[in-house]
Structures are given as C-alpha cells and as structure tokens.
Specification:
Helix content: over 70%
Radius of gyration: 25 Å
Structural class: mainly alpha
Low-confidence stretches: 1-7, 167-182, 336-340, 346-356
Oligomer: single chain
Mean pLDDT: 77
Number of domains: 3
Order of helices and strands: HHHHHHHHHHHHHHHHH
Distance between the termini: 25 Å
Strand content: under 5%
Number of helices: 17
Largest sheet: none
C-alpha cells in the first residue's frame, strides 16, 4: 500500500505542475479566462486519472472544489452535472446488473449460450464471444470479463488434460514428435483466441446499448446539453447494434483464421463440463426468474419508449431504469421466509450503486 502511494507521487507532482503552468500563462486570444482556468483543471484531472495518483472517483470530485474557487462556476452549477439524468440511467443499469450477478443469472445465460454452440473449438470461441458481447450490453465490461474468464480457464484445463492424456483433436501422427509440436501450437492458438474472444466480445458488446459502457451515456448527455439532441435507448441501438453485428464476425474470422489459426476438431469433454456446470446450478430459481422479468420489462420499456411517450408523458430512459431498479427492492425474493425481504438487500444495492 505504501509502495503504491510512493509510486504515485510523480503523478501528483505532474498534475500540480501542469495546473500551475496553465494558471500562470495568459489565456490565448479568443479564449476567456474561465475557459483557460477550466483547461488547467482538465490537465490536472487528466494527469491524476492517467497516473492514478489518487483514487479516480476522488479525482472526479475536483470540479466541485476548484470551479467555485477559480470563479469558473458556482457550486450549484458545478454540481449540476453529477445529477444529470444520464447518471440515473446508469444507476438503474448498474443495479439491474448487480441483480443479475446477485442470483447468478448472468452465469446461467453464458453457459446456456455456450452450450448451444457445441464443442468444436471455433464454435466454442464464437459462443464465448457472443455471450460476452450480449452480457456486456447490460452488465459492465469488466464484470462480464471477470465472470467469463473463469469459465474459459476451465475450458483450458480440458484442453491441457487432453494433452497430458495423449489425446488431441487432430488425432495422432505416425511421425510422433512433429505432431506433438503441432498440437502444442494449436492448443496455444486456441487458448489465446479464447481469451481474446472474451476481451473483444466485452468491448464490442458495450457499444450496442446506451448503458453498455459509461462513455456511451456520457456522449448522449453531452449531445443533449450542448446541442439539445436527445439520444434515446432505441436511437443508440439503431447505430450501435449494426456495429456490433458487423464487428463480431470480422473479429472472429481474424482470430480463428488469420492471427491464431485453429485446426483442432473437437474438445473432448467440453459439453460434459458445460452441462455439469448447469446441472450444478440446478433449475432456474424463483429469484432468477423475477430478476429476468424485471430486466425484460426494463429492456422492453427502453426499446418501446418512443411509442409509449404518447400515452405516458414525461417517460424517459432514466425513469425506466430507476423504476426497474426500485422494483428489485420491492419485489420479494421467493423462497425467503422473511416477510418483506426483497430481491435486493441494502448492501447489494449499495454495491451496485458503487459502480456509478
């Protein structure tokens, strides 16, 4: 801990230096003094974010302190962006994602998708990529990757187990030694491609929806405030989903055909592992079904909001998001004998809001 703090001292100093340098220099012609001071704060924050001199969420609070002190904006104006409707859209999205994680609904979905694609190595990679992409449209990219990677590592163990037992998807070669080297290269290609399929699937999938990754919602908020253009959930999907649908096949082709060619025919025991994991989870629980119901209602509301606005004035994506999150606290968790116990407990809700 102390070692990390010392390593970040240069980041602190660089930030202060850039802030002081901009503050001492005169503002360029055509740029107001307030804008020039804003640039100084921006450089300070950027340097601290990049170096992680202090926790990134603490750096994000600097404008509340510095903008009023430097005469850039009043306290009210400085704090207004922290309550932007986009923040509430993300708040609800994070809580929905936390609900899925709380009852392992996301894991069941991922395993089910992978099972559909079979046990051929390329099919396994495609299944991991699609499952990662779909989940990351609604769950944070990082959380999706953290959930998918242990499953991928279990597949690695299956492949290594085949290697140790002398089995290979491409069969045995009479030459012996050359085939062994070839099999090792194939296994290495498969393992690298599998890990990258999770990484790329998470990143590409995050483009698909407005809540897929924070920059999406921030861009939507910027357009609304700066240009008065509202980008709704469906509006974003009309642009984001085609990008996802085009990018995934291209990345899959490059990974499995060009960069890391895979010639293995089948993963022995792969389907048994997936079925075993699903069997261990048991049938879908009442809690999973109720989280899935709330999630489906939220997704339906986001997609159909332009049609519903005529009948429900004032309806917004942020309102739908928060409404769905509130339902998670209201709807009781089936099978829990404690009356009034919701799908979410307070601690889980706080953890979900921590993502914002």
């Amino acid at each position: 801990m102390l070692q990390r703090a010392r390593a970040n001292h240069p980041g602190l100093l660089v930030g202060f230096f850039l802030f002081g340098l901009i503050g001492l220099l005169p503002a360029p012609e055509g740029l107001s003094e307030q804008a020039w001071r804003t640039a100084a704060v921006t450089l300070l924050m950027a340097s601290w974010w990049i170096s992680e001199a202090i926790p990134i969420y603490a750096t994000a609070l600097l404008p509340i302190l510095l903008f009023p002190l430097l005469g850039i904006a009043s306290v009210g104006e400085a704090t207004a962006p922290y309550a932007n409707p986009v923040i509430y859209l993300f708040l609800g999205g994070f809580l929905l994602a936390a609900g899925m994680q709380r009852w392992s609904l996301h894991r069941r979905f991922a395993l089910s998708v992978i099972r559909v694609f079979g046990v051929k190595p390329r099919s396994v990679i495609l299944g991991f990529m699609i499952a990662s992409a779909v989940l990351s449209m609604f769950v944070s990219n990082t959380a999706t990757a953290i959930m998918m990677l242990p499953i991928a590592m279990s597949v690695f163990e299956l492949v290594e187990g085949q290697s140790r037992s002398g089995r290979s998807g491409t069969g045995q070669s009479q030459a012996g030694h050359p085939q062994t080297e070839h099999s090792q290269a194939e296994r290495r290609n498969f393992e690298i491609a599998l890990v990258l399929s999770v990484a790329y699937g998470c990143n590409v999938g995050g483009i698909g929806t407005l809540i897929g990754t924070p920059p999406n919602a921030l861009l939507a908020g910027f357009f609304q405030e700066t240009y008065g253009v509202e980008i709704g959930f469906l509006d974003w999907m009309l642009v984001g989903m085609p990008i996802v649908l085009i990018s995934l096949p291209v990345i899959f082709f490059l990974l499995t055909r060009v960069l890391f060619p895979i010639r293995m025919q089948e993963l022995d025991g792969g389907m048994d592992y997936i079925r075993g994991e699903l069997a261990q989870m048991g049938p879908m629980s009442v809690q999973e079904k109720r989280v899935a119901m709330v999630f489906a209602l939220a997704a339906l509301g986001w997609v159909t909001r332009p049609l519903l606005e005529e009948y429900v004035p004032g309806l917004s994506d942020a309102g739908i998001s928060v409404g769905a999150a509130v339902l998670l606290f209201i709807i009781p968790a089936g099978g829990d004998k404690r009356a009034g116990r919701g799908i979410f407990s307070g601690s889980v809700g706080v953890q979900g809001m921590g993502g914002v």
